[in-house]
Amino acid sequence: MCWPSVDPGRHVVARLDPATYRPHAIHGPDRAWAETNCYTDLVVELTHALGFDPVAMLPFTLAIDFEGDQWTFFKPATHDLWELYGFDVQELAIWRPLGEHLAEQVEAGYPVLVEVDAYHLPDTAGTSYRLAHSKTTIGVNDINLAQGRMGYFHNAGYFAVEGDDFHALLQPACVPYVEFIKWRRDFLPPRNGVLVGRSLEVARRHLERLPQDNPFRRFKARLARDLDWLAQADIAVFHTYSFATLRQYGACFELAATWLRWMASHGINGVEAPAASLQSIAEGAKALQFQLARSMARKKPLDLAPLDGMAALWAEALEPLRKRLR
Fold this sequence. Notes:
2 domains; alpha+beta; 7 strands; globular
């Protein structure tokens, strides 16, 4: 089949080097959760690399809920990204070879977010790379079809893939879900005062979406029921279960605490105590994750009392915060 021609050379949004790239402080070594989820992490790093402050987007973390079999897979809202940074996130229809689409959009200055198989991503060495097939999202910033090389954001950093892995990524078994970000290169980062004001308006919208009851009480009841079959499961099940539950809310509430501390640094009063409460939830989730792993390995009961403490911290932080920021 004859497709429209695309220059097979190099196409770049931002000129970055994986060897010298420095992640945002959100992914620093002092964090309880150095990584959150693939989509949020890459959008944080992409925003950072393009010269914007990604902390301003974090109010979306305030309203997550326990969804019955998982905590909310939290992602920045597309409307927020437009208001804060001028990012217009659009779905990309795949009707010709994937590499052709990636090259054309990147050449236009638009980063592309594409679902791929982590089996072919070198940055997942030791977990998925050539060991296990799993879906993840990367942000394509730099692609050279002729040389078979691609620079991409994934999790907490910026990386490159080439050779057989590059070609495998561009020939998925089924059509992937793909988005591209229509970003105007002449869009200037808002000054701090403007950005803080916009972020505060975004937060007010998300605080109206708070769960109507305490999600930690529902999660405690579900975890209590799940412990029987988890005790018979292997370590692979622990990783998937903890990712969908403990890691999701732990990482999310640490981001929420980061946003509140950022607001405090810009003169917003009354947010320090909620920030401390949400940070305590994040750290408690990390500890509970280790305790769940030990419980499963030793076939011993897990003490669920820490979830009562997290329920109290959630109530102390979120309801007063909604009233404070109205």
